[in-house]
TrEMBL record:
<dbReference type="InterPro" id="IPR012336">
    <property type="entry name" value="Thioredoxin-like_fold"/>
</dbReference>
<protein>
    <submittedName>
        <fullName>Protein disulfide-isomerase</fullName>
    </submittedName>
</protein>
<dbReference type="Pfam" id="PF13462">
    <property type="entry name" value="Thioredoxin_4"/>
</dbReference>
<dbReference type="InterPro" id="IPR036249">
    <property type="entry name" value="Thioredoxin-like_sf"/>
</dbReference>
<keyword id="KW-0732">Signal</keyword>
<feature type="signal peptide">
    <location>
        <begin position="1"/>
        <end position="21"/>
    </location>
</feature>
<keyword id="KW-0413">Isomerase</keyword>
<dbReference type="GO" id="GO:0016853">
    <property type="term" value="F:isomerase activity"/>
</dbReference>
<feature type="domain" description="Thioredoxin-like fold">
    <location>
        <begin position="42"/>
        <end position="198"/>
    </location>
</feature>
């Protein structure tokens, strides 16, 4: 969802209950929208207002089909709550499905390259949705140029798009995955699996197979 504010130049139509009126102005993006940042430990990506009333941690693998389903089913809804400042999402990628390829490592690196530019949170969330929509489980995954195109179309700033296209190293994927798997194992030592979504404020793993899990989370704030 985009938040718009008006400044003088053109006409926007404002619809109210039972009537309409014209407001002069040109639409531009609110500069105070939530942004994206790399976490203090260097291996997570915080998307949204760090003071949001609902905060979740998403452990995800770039080749995991269930992670792709999570993004397809709930990505736009997460983006909406993020843009309103109600939700913050910390992505923690892991790469345990990288066997004969570096697919997951390269996708993770592209995410961190994008995050370094502190893009608008909704743009970063759109980039994540595109990456998981173009996964190739067991394959080589999208090329650096293809990921750069996805980043550009999502609204990621140009310097980050260029860094992704060059394949510039933005994170050590091995260290990143090791730490995030360790954190994931602390949540459920019996089964280290993705996607896992953790409620950081209530300290509990969320049941993402309840189709209303996200709406229920927001309803509690």
């Amino acid at each position: 969802m985009r938040i718009w504010i008006a400044v003088a130049a053109a006409a926007l139509l404002l619809v109210t209950v039972g009537c309409t009126r014209e407001v002069t102005g040109t639409a531009r993006l609110d500069p105070n929208q939530p942004r994206t940042a790399v976490t203090d430990d260097g291996y997570g990506i915080l998307v949204g207002d760090p003071e949001a009333a609902a905060q979740i941690e998403v452990f995800t693998e770039p080749q995991c089909p269930h992670c792709a389903t999570l993004q397809a089913d709930y990505g736009p809804e997460m983006a909406s709550y993020i843009s309103l400042g109600q939700l913050a999402v910390t992505y923690r990628p892991v790469t345990f499905l990288d066997q004969d390829t570096d697919h997951s490592a390269r996708v993770s690196n592209a995410m961190f390259a994008a995050a370094e530019a502190a893009p608008r949170a909704v743009a970063f969330q759109a980039f994540v949705e595109e990456l998981w929509a173009h996964q190739q489980p067991g394959g080589s995954g999208p090329t650096d140029i293809e990921m750069a195109d996805m980043a550009q179309e999502s609204g990621i700033p140009a310097p980050a798009v260029q860094a992704i296209a060059r394949g510039r190293e933005a994170v050590d994927p091995g260290d990143m995955s090791d730490l995030n798997i360790e954190l994931l194992a602390q949540l459920n030592s019996d089964q280290v699996a993705t996607p896992t979504v953790y409620d950081l404020l209530n300290n509990e793993v969320l049941d993402i197979y309840d189709e209303n899990w996200l709406a229920k989370l927001i309803s509690t704030i």
